[in-house]
Structure formats: C-alpha cells, structure tokens
Amino acid sequence: MNFRGFASDNNAGVSPEVLKKIAKVNLGHVVGYGDDPFTSTAISILKEHFGSRTTPFLVFTGTGANVLSIAAVVNSFHSVICAETSHIHEDECGAPEHFSGCKLLPVITPDGKLTPGLIKPHLKGFNFEHHSQPRVISISQSTEMGTVYSPEEIKILADFAHSYGLILHIDGARLANATVSLGVTFKAMTTDQGADILSFGGTKNGLMAAESVIFLNSKLAGNFKYLRKQGMQLASKMRFIAAQLIAYFENDLWKRNAFHANEMARLLCQLVKDIPQVKITQKVQSNGVFAILPKKIIPILQKEFFFYVWNEERGEVRWMTSFDTTEEDIAGFVARLKVIIRQKH
Predict the structure, then answer these.
(1) How far apart are CA 88 and CA 92, in angstroms?
(2) Can you tell me the distance from the alpha carbon of 84 to that of 186, in angstroms, rounded to the nearest whole number?
(3) Is residue 70 part of a domain?
(4) Eight-state DSSP code of residue 280
(5) Of 35, 242, 316, 322, whose Cβ has the fewest other Cβ atoms within 10 Å?
(6) For the whole model, what pTM was predicted?
(7) Are residues 92 and 185 both part of a single domain?
(8) Which of 216, 251, 286 is the C-terminal boundary of a domain?
(9) Which helix (H) or strand (E) holds 318?
(10) How many CB atoms lie within 10 A of CB 222?
C-alpha cells in the first residue's frame, strides 16, 4: 500500500542513509545496553551539537523521552505547565501523569506557544499543601501548530521559569524543523538559552526509532539511568539506535531532511492560500499547514489523501509534509482539492 498523504511525518519512511548505517553496524557482537563504541560515538556527537557539559541518554520513542524527562525532575505532588495542544497533553494517553504521578496544567494558546503572561495565572499555591506545586514548564519546538519559538522567546521562558524555581523542558520531536526554519544551531536554540531538559527527536525526520533525553543542565541527570530502565526505554541492542543518530548528523542529513519538509509545507501553503474557500489559520514556519476548509469536502478529499481533521467544529485540518514529500505529491493534492471545491460549490 502506498497511500501517500499529509497526515503525519511519522507516516514517512526511513532515510536510505539511515538504513545503510544500520546495516553497517549489524556485524558481529558488541556489548549490549549502550556499552558499545557506536553509542559512545552517538553521545559524543550529541555533545558536539548541544554542548560538552550536557548529558544525553538514548531512547527509542518520543513519548518515552517526554515522560522520562518529566519523571526525572518531579514528585507526584508537582505539576507541569504546557500548552493545551502539546503532545504530552493531547497525544500520550495520560502517560506523563501515569508514570510521574504529577498533574498537567494545560494552557489555551492562540498558536501553540506559551508566554510568561499565559503561564503566570498557573503559578500559584506555592508551599500550600492543598495545591499541586508547579515544577516544570514544557514547550514544544516546533509546536503542534507548526509555529516556532525564536531563541529569544526560549530565553525569556527559561529565565521566567528559573525566577520561580521551575525547570524548562523542550519537546524537540521536530527541533530540526524549527532549527532550519530559524537558521540557527541546536545549541543556540536550547542550551545557550537556558533550557534545562530536551527530548530530542529524529523519528519524524527520517529515522526509524531514535530519540534521546538530553540534560542540558547535567545537574538534573541524577539517577536517570535507573529511570530509563524502569521506563522500559533502555534498548539492549542500542547500537542500532546509535547508528541512526550517527547517520542523522553525517553530512547534515538532519538539516537536508528538515529543510525539504519545511520547503514542501511552504509550497503547499503557497498553492492553496489564494483559493477563496481555503483559510490558512497558522503561520507556516516548519512542516505543518493548518487550514479551514468547507466541511463537506473534507471526507471526500480524505478518501484520496490521508490527513487529519484538527478541529471538527471549525472544519480546520492539518497537513504535514515530510522529508520524502515530493512536489508531485503537492501538485496532485492541490489539483484534486480545486476540482472537489468546484464540484461542491
């Protein structure tokens, strides 16, 4: 089945360079659970990109990275402030609350981005035993709405969090898309701005199953290696996760993949934005396009192109592009969209 569409960058395949690297390390025996030379290389590469004083741990799912990042720094009486649209709130089946025991405090945002002003009302009840105690601010970069925080905005949030004794966590499942969009480095986006913990993802950008928890503030790493094991994210054959990350950074594969995905989203937006029946609802800053369509055409279009409805009441849909999205994919989609609109109007 080759049902191409715009539902999710998770639906894309794996970059050929990654598959080749996996095959290359698939020789002989090496020590398991990360005590192998490939994992050491991958960790060294992450340190090169995020800072020599950071402490990375490899995991294999994005949810695992987010949940364990939070669990490492909270007690059950703590709370995590996040956007209402965040992955930890909407798409992880309550895993952060289940495994950490803490409470998520979702914040309504117009564009998926948190600001000190939006967070401030939730900073209450400190030292009062009847309230959960705010402990973490978690942001997504890029956000689930396809928008991007500038480094300056992250710096403001980090300083704001620290002024209250809180920790800033970044869900970086699409950090590559955000970094390429802004033309900065990973370190300039995260460590240099004072963020504390990062869930760094590659699965949405051409990897098979390779994520990591990076303690940008190594003082917080503590007993994380035990949490990773308890959290079922310690891979026995970790060399195959490491191989993916090594390939990801070789010859800037991460940058090429993310740049292409972003460019395809911009192309899609450019081709549909002037259609009178289509209303773009968010800035296209990474690889997501959000648009309101006439409700009656959505299921017709979905029969041919897989994508999700973001807001049924508004008729808002989400179109995600990937590293392997082609201009032909987009041209065919837009042409069909126009035909359906003409037929139904």
Answers:
(1) 5
(2) 25
(3) yes
(4) E
(5) 35
(6) 0.96
(7) yes
(8) 251
(9) strand 316-320
(10) 13
> What value does the mean pLDDT take over residues 1-15?
86
205 contacts 257 by C-beta, under 8 angstroms: yes
Question: What is the DSSP secondary-structure string of 63-109?
Answer: HHHHHHHHHTT--TTEEEEEETT-HHHHSSTTHHHHHH--EEEEE--
Number of domains within the chain: 2
> Within this chain, do residues 120 and 179 fall inside the same structural domain, yes or no?
yes
Same domain, 245 and 268: no
Burial class for 112, CB neighbours closer than 10 Å (0-12, 13-18, 19+): buried
Residues 66 and 206 both lie in one domain = yes
Distance CA 70, CA 72 (A): 5
* pLDDT of 1 strictly over 60: no
Instruction: State the DSSP H helix or E strand holding residue 201, giving kind and residue range, or none if neither.
Output: strand 197-201
Instruction: Kindly tell me the burial class for residue 209, based on how many C-beta atoms sit within 10 Å of its own C-beta (0-12, 13-18, 19 or more).
Output: middle
* Side chain identity, residue 235: A
Query: Which helix H or strand E contains 62, and what residues bound it?
Result: helix 62-71
CB 79 within 8 A of CB 133: yes
Give the long-range contacts of residues 273-281, CB within 8 A, separation 24 or more. Answer: 275/337, 275/338, 275/341, 277/341, 277/345, 278/337, 281/316
Distance CA 83, CA 81 (A): 7
Are 261 and 210 found together in one domain?
no
Residues 6+ apart with CB under 8 A from 77: 102, 132, 133
Predicted confidence at residue 3, as pLDDT, reads 62
CA-nearest of 190, 182, 183 to 212 is 190
Residue 306 and residue 214 share a domain: no
Which residue has 């601010």 as its token pair?
137
Structural domain for 55, as ranges = 13-251
Alpha helices (H) in 140-278, listed in sequence order: 151-163, 175-182, 186-189, 224-230, 239-249, 253-272
Last residue within a domain, chosen from 251, 272, 295: 251
Q: What percent of the chain has pLDDT over 90?
A: 98
Q: Residue 11, Cα to own-chain centre: how many angstroms? A: 15
